[in-house]
Write a structure and sequence with these properties.
Strand content: 15-25%
Number of domains: 2
CATH architecture of the largest domain: 3-Layer(aba) Sandwich
Number of helices: 12
Strand order of the largest sheet: 2-8-7-6-5-3-4
Order of helices and strands: HEHHEHEHEHEHEEEHHHEHEEEH
């Protein structure tokens, strides 16, 4: 069963309450929509530069340079959402090459890899407390490995990997000519400060960054790819043959968003995180440390799919079974929603826990 099939099952069984959705329900800020309204009134809906509009590229360079990343406009390709950015970047690899995923992983990685006809290899991070480090990376790769996907911070575990360990992994990858695809859609949702290391573009590192979670713009499908000039040239060619370009008014929304203070909705995530932590501890539930994202990955005794289906049938509550992320005996809940919805859903879960002995 995949994510789409599970969501269809939940709908068929009459789901009413959701701890499954990785999306902030509050509306996007109205001032972001000014470019959209202007474009529609003026009728200026045209093709744009494949790489991205100049004003957005300039804003991205400014942002990344402030974060110690030594890039220029030639290191950027604006694209339509992080998922498409990952898929596009996979074309830097070849069919039948080995793609390594670190379990638990975002479900679409495996599907995308199989679509590209890679040999997908899964390495379980359970023995490393769900942390990717040098030891785990060396255990995971082989002479056949050509591509790895690293999700930082991680969905579904909420773990944030050490920058020092990631630097070691990058050095190993460059020595062994392994392409690292970094999915950084949750890069700005962290609950502990972490010093960022300087990064210089490399042929063996591709970083995919998204506006969706940071600026609550999931429906805009806007992201950008960072890599070496040679890789970006190739990705621009592939984008021209598929997407062509991201609509200009969407890119202008992104440019405006980059000027915004990102802290506003994070305060709610921080409060919701505290509510979740209290709930988990009071109910003696084991879970992965929530260092980033807005997810909790909770250990259970039995089948994750069985528990998820029972929660829908008995409490009309939707959580995601860990098996969708390649890890059995866990469930994932999201606390991206409102405080009232979160409390309502946790009450439903508590009722279920009283009736069942599944955790």
């Amino acid at each position: 069963m995949n994510l789409q099939e599970f969501n269809q099952l939940a709908k068929q069984k009459g789901a009413k309450y959701f701890l499954s959705i990785g999306e902030d329900p509050t509306p996007m800020k109205r001032k972001f929509l000014i470019p959209l309204l202007k474009t529609f009134f003026q009728g200026k809906i045209k093709y744009e530069n494949v790489q991205g509009i100049p004003s957005l590229l300039e804003a991205i360079v400014k942002k990344e340079n402030e974060e110690k990343n030594k890039i220029n406009e030639k290191n950027i390709c604006v694209t339509s959402g992080s998922t498409f950015g990952i898929y596009l970047s996979m074309f830097l690899g070849k069919e039948n090459e080995e793609l390594v995923l670190f379990s638990p992983y975002y479900p679409l990685y495996k599907e995308l890899g199989e679509q590209r006809k890679f040999h997908v290899k899964i390495y379980d991070l359970s023995n490393h407390d769900f942390l990717l480090n040098e030891e785990a990376f060396l255990n995971a790769i082989s002479e056949k490995t050509k591509i790895c996907i690293i999700n930082q911070p991680n969905n579904p575990t909420g773990r944030v990997y050490s920058e020092d360990e990631l630097q070691k992994i990058i050095q190993i990858a460059e020595q062994r000519k392994i392409l690292l695809l970094f999915d950084e859609v949750y890069e700005d949702i962290r609950y502990f400060s972490q010093e960022k290391r300087q990064w210089v573009p490399s042929d063996f590192v591709v970083r995919i960054k998204s506006f969706s979670k940071t600026y609550n713009m999931t429906g805009c499908r806007l992201a950008y790819i960072l890599s070496s000039e040679e890789n970006i040239q190739f990705l621009k060619k592939m984008q021209r043959l598929t997407l062509i370009s991201v609509p200009g008014f969407i890119q202008e929304i992104g440019r405006r968003a980059l000027k915004e203070n990102k802290a506003s909705h994070y305060k709610r995530y921080q409060k919701n995180r505290k509510i979740v932590l209290r709930f988990l501890k009071r109910n003696h539930l084991e879970f992965s440390p929530i260092e980033g994202t807005f997810y909790a990955f909770i250990a259970i005794k039995n089948s994750s799919l069985k528990m998820a289906v029972e929660l829908i049938e008995k409490e009309h509550l939707v959580v995601l079974p860990g098996i969708l992320f390649g890890k059995e005996n866990y469930i994932r809940i999201s606390f991206a929603g409102t405080k009232s919805n979160l409390k309502r859903c946790l009450k439903k879960m508590k009722l279920y826990l009283k009736k069942c002995n599944n955790v």
